[in-house]
Amino acid sequence: MSAARPHFSAVVPQFGIRDLVHTAEYYRDFLGFEIASYWDGEVVTPEPRNTPQFAIVRRDQVQVFFNRAEQSNCRTGRTEGGYDAYFHVTGIEALADELRSHGADIVDGPDERVYGQRELVVRDCNGLLLCFAEAVTESER
Known about the structure:
It is a single chain. The model has no long low-confidence stretch (mean pLDDT about 90). The protein has two helices and nine strands; from the N terminus they run E-H-E-E-E-E-E-H-E-E-E. The chain folds into two domains: about 15-70, no CATH class; about 85-140, Signal recognition particle alu RNA binding heterodimer, srp9/1 (2-Layer Sandwich), CATH 3.30.720.110. It is α+β, with helices and mostly antiparallel strands. The termini are far apart.
């Protein structure tokens, strides 16, 4: 009897940040995510209750988790030139237009990279660098 081959279907970035409500609302208002839920240590709710300890935002099939942390800044260990999260998307130009119209802090792009991705880099309200990337097709090169 052989075991089925493992299959990875998703990864969920998880960040420790100070203000869960502000962050979740930022992702909703500026980046087009919806707030999936908050957890206050006892109950999961769609609206913040007491002092949330955990929040989830989502857009399409993508989720981002946030834990409440006491430090004043979000520490990620990101190296120079790196990103805190890398999202594969389609429709990068439309996404860029949408994020611009919402006033998101666009740091770069969308620009085509030598490795075949068109990338849009955004800084969130905690200073996290989020890269949204779309594969460049052969006909676009």
